[in-house]
């Protein structure tokens, strides 16, 4: 493999430095990274490490994910890439008529919170499926670090506490059944450094470990979920859980700057990053200044065009009006690129995106296996619903469905909703190069785009690309920018017609990423990793 010529001197103000090693786990919480590294030390592979880290993340970052999350993964198994879609399906009782009867004839989407926002959770099935196909250690061993953390407790870090406290101020979350009991000890969110224990979740993790996930989908936990749903007017049944299966899928890809970006195909929004990069491949970004007005303007406009198509067409792949291949057609993207005006910002008609609550992690080992993994409760604590006695905090992915007749994303029994969480993977001439992801609602494809352009077009190493200032497209000509973006660039974007707003909530609105870049032979040169300073994370290696 030809080594990529990074400029290692390029950097931005940061709390982090690149981390080098032959075995690496990078997550948004140090205890989860250490759980994965512990698994590697015990002889596990990158998949084992990713599962251990993911299980730990449900405990240490509950404001973003939980045992009732959904998940996606892309794995380089040593020979090829394999994708896993473990996003949940709608309960059998969900129809447009069901929701209109509960929400009114004018309702445009299912509920934001509560049981009427919960689809079948898929994350636990992802852990099981990954372990069955690729794991080398006993499945039960992989959940031991998470069980230990849940039982002994952990000191709550700063960023997690910030998001926890924000959720605790929202009645739409705190009034949901089971939430206060699980997540408001002493009647409030924990303080920074305060010990938080989650014995109910430890109980469920043990049941999952002992049964290889069967207790969650076809046993004691499934029965508890159904009883809780029934008690609070929800449609979820044990039969819905028992019928659920994750789906192995072939990733979709697009070439850019001598590399190929791979994403999970719809029902997720990863295709937006591919469309945007396909459009940008018609411009010479490498000849521009990385933080200059023109480079940022072109990326913003390409992202707008990508979202316009993504929001119009993407749904459960079985109900889409067009194929991903049509959306990524070279001639079509060349025509879309010609719509960009270098002298002014335009409104390409993208929808108004929602905000997200997600964790992303990545792991790689010295044998060459690399894992890109993401799991999420969607909007922070998701539905707000927590199954008492079991600590199952449930996502609110059902809110991603539409109730509008004719929409490809119209709710239906057993259907998957439009999904925001997207793991990513980069290859070069068919060989693995980087496993990575950026968390945060519709910021995810925008983060993929911005960090990859920095690495591939501007030769910025992964931590520098991670630390660099970001923008976020909202709708129309509205964008948010981080305060660290140069003032001259902000003013230049305004002069082109962008409606630029500075925004300080870097955790949510500008995403947070983890990156592992392969330097050469994994057993010799190893990898370099980056962890986003916008969260409490850590890249841990040996």
Key terms for this structure?
542 residues; alpha+beta; seven-stranded antiparallel beta sheet; 21 strands; 19% strand
Q: What features would you describe in this structure?
A:
- Helix content is 36%, strand content 19%.
- The chain is of the alpha+beta class and 542 residues long.
- Helix 14 (270-280) packs parallel to helix 18 (443-456).
- The longest helix is centred in the middle third of the chain and has 21 residues, at 293-313.
- Mean pLDDT is 93; it is low at 350-355.
Short description:
The protein is of the alpha+beta class and 542 residues long. The protein contains 21 helices and 21 strands.
The CATH H-level homologous superfamily: Gamma-glutamyltranspeptidase, small (S) subunit
How many strands, what sense, and barrel or not for the largest sheet? 7 strands, antiparallel
The CATH topology assignment is Glutamine Phosphoribosylpyrophosphate, subunit 1, domain 1
Total of DSSP H or I helical runs spanning 4+ residues: 21
Poorly predicted ranges: 350-355
Sheet with most strands: strand arrangement: 1-20-19-15-14-9-8
CATH architecture title: 4-Layer Sandwich
CATH C-level category? Alpha Beta
What is the topology?
Elements: E1 19-21, E2 24-27, H1 30-41, H2 46-60, E3 70-76, E4 81-86, H3 96-103, H4 123-134, H5 139-142, H6 144-152, E5 154-155, H7 158-168, H8 171-174, H9 179-183, E6 195-196, H10 199-211, H11 214-218, H12 220-231, H13 238-243, E7 247-249, E8 252-256, E9 259-263, H14 270-280, H15 293-313, H16 324-327, H17 330-337, E10 357-364, E11 370-378, E12 386-387, E13 392-393, E14 424-428, E15 431-439, H18 443-456, H19 462-467, E16 471-475, E17 478-481, H20 487-495, E18 499-502, H21 506-509, E19 512-518, E20 527-531, E21 538-541
Parallel strand pairs: 17-18
Antiparallel strand pairs: 1-20, 2-10, 2-21, 3-4, 3-11, 4-7, 5-6, 8-9, 9-14, 10-11, 12-13, 14-15, 15-19, 16-17, 19-20
Helix pairs in contact: 1-2, 2-4, 2-6, 6-10, 14-15, 14-17, 14-18, 15-20
């Amino acid at each position: 493999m030809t080594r990529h010529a990074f400029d290692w001197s390029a950097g931005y103000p940061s709390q982090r430095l690149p981390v080098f090693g032959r075995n690496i786990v990078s997550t948004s919480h140090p205890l989860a990274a250490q759980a994965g590294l512990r698994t590697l030390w015990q002889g596990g592979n990158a998949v084992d490490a990713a599962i251990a880290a993911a299980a730990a993340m449900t405990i240490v970052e509950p404001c973003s994910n939980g045992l009732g999350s959904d998940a996606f993964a892309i794995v380089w198994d040593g020979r090829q890439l394999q994708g896993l879609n473990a996003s949940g399906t709608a309960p059998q009782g969900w129809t447009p008529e069901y929701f209109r009867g509960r929400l009114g004839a004018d309702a445009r989407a299912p509920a934001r919170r509560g049981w009427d926002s919960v689809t079948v959770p898929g994350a636990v099935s992802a852990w099981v499926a990954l372990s069955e196909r690729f794991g080398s250690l006993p499945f039960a061993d992989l959940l031991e670090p998470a069980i230990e953390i849940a039982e002994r407790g952990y000191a709550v870090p700063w960023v997690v506490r910030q998001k926890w406290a924000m959720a605790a101020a929202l009645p739409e979350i705190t009034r949901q059944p089971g939430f206060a009991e699980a997540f408001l000890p002493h009647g409030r969110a924990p303080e920074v450094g305060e010990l938080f224990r989650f014995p109910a979740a430890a109980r469920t993790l043990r049941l999952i470990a002992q049964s290889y996930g069967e207790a969650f989908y076809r046993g004691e936990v499934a029965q508890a979920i159904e009883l809780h749903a029934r008690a609070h007017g929800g449609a979820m049944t044990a039969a819905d859980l028992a019928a659920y299966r994750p789906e192995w899928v072939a990733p979709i890809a697009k070439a850019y700057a001598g590399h190929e970006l791979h994403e999970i195909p719809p029902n997720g929004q990863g295709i937006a990053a591919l469309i945007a990069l396909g459009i940008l491949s018609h411009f010479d970004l490498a000849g521009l200044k990385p933080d200059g007005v023109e480079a940022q303007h072109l990326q913003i406009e390409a992202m707008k065009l990508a979202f316009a198509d993504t929001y119009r067409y993407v749904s459960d792949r079985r109900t889409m009006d067009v194929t991903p291949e049509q959306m990524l057609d070279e001639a079509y993207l060349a025509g879309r690129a010609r719509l960009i005006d270098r002298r002014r910002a335009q409104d390409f008609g993208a929808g108004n995106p929602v905000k997200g609550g997600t964790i992303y992690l990545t792991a790689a080992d010295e044998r060459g296996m690399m894992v890109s993994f993401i799991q999420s409760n969607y909007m922070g604590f998701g539905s707000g619903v927590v199954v008492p006695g079991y600590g199952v905090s449930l996502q609110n992915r059902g809110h991603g469905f539409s109730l509008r007749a004719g929409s490809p994303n119209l709710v239906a029994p057993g259907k998957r909703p439009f999904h925001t969480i997207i793991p990513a993977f980069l290859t070069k001439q068919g060989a693995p190069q980087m496993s990575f992801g950026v968390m945060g609602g519709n910021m995810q494809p925008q983060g993929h785009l911005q960090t990859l352009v920095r690495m591939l077009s501007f030769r910025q190493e992964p931590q520098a690309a991670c630390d660099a200032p970001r923008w976020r497209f909202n709708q129309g000509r509205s964008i948010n920018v981080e305060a660290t973006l140069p003032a001259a660039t902000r003013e230049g974007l305004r002069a082109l017609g962008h409606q630029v707003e500075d925004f300080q909530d870097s955790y949510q609105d500008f995403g947070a990423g983890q990156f592992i870049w392969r330097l050469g032979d994994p057993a010799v040169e190893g990898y370099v990793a980056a962890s986003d300073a916008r969260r409490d994370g850590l890249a841990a290696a040996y």
